[in-house]
Design a protein that fits this description.
Blueprint: E1 10-15, E2 19-24, E3 29-36, E4 40-42, H1 49-52, H2 60-68, E5 70-76, H3 77-86, E6 98-101, E7 114-117, H4 121-132, E8 136-141, H5 143-151, E9 157-163, E10 171-172, E11 183-190, E12 196-202
Parallel strand pairs: 3-8, 3-9, 5-6, 5-8, 6-7
Antiparallel strand pairs: 1-2, 4-10, 9-12, 11-12
Length: about 200
């Protein structure tokens, strides 16, 4: 199902087990992430073996449709270091302008357009939205970076694929500090493995 207004540009993909899934293609700042049922995006050591066990084949069409609408990327140091640890070939974002928010001196990736530095989220958001043009800004993570965007009122949507796993502890999905935030369900897509993607618009 899709709750997007008729005037919002979108990408629609068809899935054999579900029908249609719809993704926004307009200027929006989005947190696209996978989470356990109990609200963790990684274990205490930033590991995601619990997610990798499910593979990626059934999610490929969704991810490709989402990425087609992304014009800029923001992430924190832990997320970036995870990618570095997987090797240069794990950088799947091409030349999409990317900001890595950190006070640490981290290496770049050849061929990628990455700026690394201690930017406040408001400045990172301003730079990313200017670079994205009429496309979306993807806040990749981690949860603390996404929460800073949410606390500053700069996060428009959360697209979370809930994986049928319980961790009990780990890195939280969205540890906001600004109090309760209402969210409106815009769409959902179930997958054969038991995962389900939920697409929420954040209110004030």
């Amino acid at each position: 199902m899709s709750g997007l207004p008729d005037h919002v540009p979108r990408i629609t993909i068809r899935l054999p087990w579900h029908g249609e899934a719809v993704y926004r293609v307009a200027m929006s700042t989005q947190y696209y992430v996978a989470s356990t049922v109990d609200g963790f995006i990684a274990d205490n050591d930033d590991g995601i073996d619990w997610l990798l066990d499910f593979g990626f084949d059934e999610f490929t069409a969704h991810f490709d449709a989402f990425l087609a609408g992304v014009g800029a990327i923001v992430m924190g140091s832990a997320t970036y270091e995870y990618i570095l640890g997987e090797g240069p070939s794990s950088w799947s974002y091409g030349s999409v302008p990317t900001w890595v928010l950190t006070t640490r001196d981290l290496p770049g990736i050849e061929g990628a357009r990455i700026e690394i530095g201690p930017l406040p989220v408001a400045e990172a958001h301003a730079r990313a939205t200017a670079a994205a043009g009429d496309r979306n800004v993807w806040v990749v993570g981690g949860g603390s970076v996404a929460a800073q965007f949410a606390d500053a009122g700069l996060l428009d949507e959360v697209l979370v694929t809930v994986v049928p796993v319980f961790l009990g502890e780990g890195k939280r999905l969205l540890p906001v500090t600004s109090g309760p935030r209402r969210a409106r369900l815009e769409g959902s897509t179930p997958f054969p493995s038991g995962c389900i993607e939920l697409r929420y618009a954040l209110g004030s």
